[in-house]
Amino acid sequence: MLNCGGTIVDVECRDGNGSEVNMMVEGAGRLLVFSSVRPQRCLVDGFEDAFEWENGGNLSVDVSWKQDKNGISDVAFCY
Questions:
Q1: How far is CA 72 from CA 10, 35, 39, 44, in A?
Q2: pTM assigned to the model
Q3: pLDDT value at residue 16
Q4: What pLDDT sits at residue 15?
Q5: Which residues have C-beta within 8 Å of that of residue 11, sequence separation ≥ 6?
Q6: Where does the pLDDT of residue 4 fall: very low under 50, low under 70, confident under 90, or very high at 90 and above?
Q7: In degrees to the nearest 10, what's the CA dihedral of 47, 45, 35, 20?
Q8: Burial of 75 (0-12, 13-18, 19+ CB in 10 A)
Q9: Chain-wide mean pLDDT for the chain?
Q10: Distances (CA, A) of 55 to 6, 35, 52, 59, 79
């Protein structure tokens, strides 16, 4: 998370019909991770959300604070 003191709490990678990377993140702000491949879609708390991917591998999505979940958001990148 950029400039917010956020953190990645957990990461899980699944490889089935389509690969998926699931993360639990704490905090709010812009989540920036690296991905050499552009995801087909991004889900934040189960809802499709806009994301940005650059050829250099920078992958980012905005995450808001979830008061009812103590600031924890579920983020999934689907490939």
A1: 11, 22, 22, 11
A2: 0.87
A3: 77
A4: 87
A5: 21, 22, 23
A6: low
A7: -80
A8: buried
A9: 90
A10: 25, 9, 10, 9, 16
Place of tokens 């992958």: 59
Q: What is the pLDDT of residues 18-49, one digit of tens each?
A: 799 999 999 988 999 999 999 999 999 999 99
Judge whether 61 and 23 are in contact, CB under 8 Å. Answer: no
Joined tokens for residue 56? 């250099």
Spatial neighbors of 77 by CB under 8 A, at least 6 apart, are 20, 21, 35, 39, 41, 42, 51, 59
In contact, 71 and 27? CB cutoff 8 Å: yes
Count Cβ atoms below 10 Å from residue 79 Cβ, excluding itself: 13
Length, in residues, of the chain: 79
What amino acid is encoded at 72 in this protein? I
